[in-house]
Amino acid sequence: MTPNAAPASSGPSRRSFLASSAVATAAVAGGMPLLAACGGSDGGSRDGTTSGKDAEKILPAYVASNVVTPDIPSRNGSAVGFTGKLDLADLKTSVPKKLGKGNKVTVMSPFWGSPPKDGNAYYKAMNDLIGVDVVWQNQDGNTYDQKLGAVLASSEVPDVVVVPGWNMTGRIPSAVIGKFADLGPYLSGDAVKDYPNLAAIPTDAWQRSIFGGKLRGLPMPSSYVSGIVPLYRQDVFEKEGYEVPRSCDEFMALAKDATNARAKRWACLDMKWTAFNAFGVLSGNEKSLGWNEVDGKLIHRIETDEYLEALEWTRKLFAAGVVHPDAELGKSNAADPGPKFAAGEFLIYNQDISQWWSRTAEQATQNPEFKIWGMDFFGHDGGDPALWAQNPASIFAFVNKKASEAVIRDVLAVANVTAAPYGTKEYMATNYGVEGTHYTVKDGVPTKTDQGNIDVMNAYVMIASPAATIAHPDFPEVAKGQVEWQQRMGAFTRKPSFYGMQITEPARYTNLSNDFEQLEDDVVRGRKKIADMQQAVSDWKSKGGDELRDWYRKILDENGPAAG
Amino acid sequence: MSHSTVPRTDTEAEAKNNRPAARGGAGSAKQPPAAGQSLRLRLKRDRVLLLMTLPAVLLVLLFNYVPILGNIVAFQEYDPYISDNGVVSILNSPWVGLENFQRILEDSAFWNAVRNTLVLFILQLVLYFPIPILLALLINSVVRPRVRAISQAILYLPHFFSWVLVIAVFQQIFGGAGILSQLLRAHGYDGLDIMTDPGTFKFLVTAESVWKDAGWGIIVFLAALASVSPDLYEAAAMDGAGRWRRMWHVTLPALRPVIALLLVLRVGDALTVGFEQILLQRDAVGPGAAEVLDTFVWWNGVRNQDFGYAAAAGLVKGVISLGLVLAANKVAHLMGEQGVYKK
């Protein structure tokens, strides 16, 4: 597929096409004229994907860096794991010379938890290390989608904006292409060798960073195994003699057993994501991951029976009263679930795998009995789960296209430090902060201080990261648990048809599936019926879903399915 | 909002307004010009007043009238991301005629939002609007200044809390794991989750509004009550009118113009029913119960970046609101009140 040109030049063809095509509701005349707009022959279009020779031209060269050999090598798509002791004197320096030139760089990024104050010791130390004045504009990660569109529509877009793939709803992909700089001149081919830590980022993560035919993103590489883990209070399970459930029925029985509302204890939060995995529903993480070819026909996740079954089972959990009332609030509940989990108000919730460690570290000093652990996904009927891969990079940092070359270079200087691999001083600074202030080391085990737990949260890691790494010298058993969980789950994970591709859907389909997440939340909370969902799916088909299927079919025919 | 800001253009009002100016020593005002005088003379006479209104007029122009031009995107498939300059984006976005409006008419979510908005408006009119009047009468009947000041302060206070705080407090008390529910559970009853019940959501929203703003709303009524001459009460008492008759025949008639004015303004605002308050609770009960026109516009415009569609919905809302305010004003005139304006 041909990469698209700059937005300005895409004007006429796109405009005339949009003017003639009715958006969603109005009847759209046959598929033919629409399909012509897809990638292929139309040099001016923004949609489609970039692969093959076109991609090779812009991808950065890969130069592996082997600072430390991992204790647990990657298997089944897992991250590499490090479980050894830490020797500060042994840390390598991966950025010998400060690359930053002292420019001010504003960064808007999603943040999960409570952001630390501006100018805290961690931010200062990182900025000194890099030589760039990074100013953070952290936004609540749970409602990031509600702010992103407005910020990008304004004329005051920050220098760097971090966008997770799951927030690329509506017209955000169009904004990414229209508002952010082409980093190709700085990174394509051998140019990336100026930034050795970026050169060590795996190529499949860079492949995902091509938006609208140009290399625009700085990726956060990730394991393709589900990032969502059902996390549970292992200490409470052991004390109460609960067994980890291995089927939906067992989960339900356990949940009923564990719930005692009178004592302010419920079994879990909203388990929708776990249910999707238990029933083998295609990923909703990114639009293109929702499609898969079955017997020569492309099927979308919302069309499957499994999707409805997963929602129905989650609904039963809510109806049984085993879900903490806070979860009823959905996204209206702005509170961090951490404290209530620590207080034992609920015992199971599903969240990003990173919380397995961050909750452990948070509670280690004040709550020594607390033990959080990851539960294996179960097949709904007690068999093996059928899991679907997520993409090998799902979070990207973009640079404002109005930024000067000096600012872009400084952003890359930041990325080159934050992407430093495990075993380097830069990795330690990015992930643990300043020794003495944010962590102390005793017998090769770093322990985060209270200030470390406040200051050193997800900020700098959002700019760019090394190849998926799990290293927690403070809690090596957690690192081991996480990697082994990924390896066990990786064995059940398959890649859907469009795995690994960065696909931008045509503008006329952008709003087609906007409201499904909301409808899911309505259904599981009993406010809407499964029949309403079925109605929405049939509307989706007639309003463009079937055309979208044809559009994806064309991409599949041109690029071939993902390997595996 | 006080009725002194109401613009009056009839000569009688002008003459009245002029009196203080004369006292202030503006020479030309010694002989108030009669109606029909040339515009130039009138401009000259009122120049100080006009000058003083200028900043406000400029602000209104800049922040209320200039943005109206942006409604043009309602007729476009607007994409704000094709340029950093909004005007350039508008010029380069494709025209779609009335398509967005057609979509609105066919969108059940829009009609659901209209229905929720109207139901909420009527609920608030019935359950909320009279409360400040009653409170004002109550406060007005308190004689001791100290008690009066303290109770007024307590009534005003919630107005200064942000909605986030108000809703968090309600959640802590009435939520599924809140004080009330845990108390019920401790005594063997089932918990009660008022905050996530779509059926009673509109009453909840009204209750929150009353708690937060009803106290603040009494200010205008208190001012109107203060202007009632004590002579009237004395005269009524002399004629043998009891407490209730005095209220019925003296107090309420004195409040009538203010009530009518606020009612007209409220009707004009009928379709604006607490954007922030409802947005914060939208996901707690789902859009089916909580979506109002303002959140509908927000969801489609800001969240989904379907700006043209959202602008069209906003425009429809604006037109309906204009119709409502004109109708309400007409009714006020028929009742013999000033209303918001008079021809």
Automatic annotation (TrEMBL), chain A:
UniProt GO cellular component terms: cell envelope
Keyword list, A-Z: Signal, Transport
Pfam families: SBP_bac_8
Coiled-coil portions: none
Keyword match Coiled coil: no
Entry protein name: Aldouronate transport system substrate-binding protein
Protein location: Cell envelope
PANTHER family: ARABINOSE-BINDING PROTEIN-RELATED, SN-GLYCEROL-3-PHOSPHATE-BINDING PERIPLASMIC PROTEIN UGPB
Domain of life the protein comes from: Bacteria
Similarity field: Belongs to the bacterial solute-binding protein 1 family.
Main location per the UniProt record: other
Automatic annotation (TrEMBL), chain B:
Entry's Gene Ontology BP terms: transmembrane transport
Ranges for domain ABC transmembrane type-1: 114-328
This protein's UniProt keywords: Cell membrane, Membrane, Transmembrane, Transmembrane helix, Transport
Subcellular localization, as worded in the UniProt entry: Cell membrane
One CC-aspect GO term: plasma membrane
Topology within the bilayer: Multi-pass membrane protein
Predominant place of localization: membrane
CDD domains for this protein: TM_PBP2 (cd06261)
Entry-linked Pfam families: BPD_transp_1
Membrane-crossing residue ranges in chain numbering: 48-68, 118-143, 155-174, 214-233, 254-275, 307-328
Cross-referenced PROSITE patterns: ABC_TM1
Matches recorded under SUPFAM superfamilies: MetI-like
Source organism, top-level taxon: Bacteria
Residue ranges, annotated region (Disordered): 1-37
Family that this chain belongs to: Belongs to the binding-protein-dependent transport system permease family.
Name by which UniProt lists this protein: Aldouronate transport system permease protein
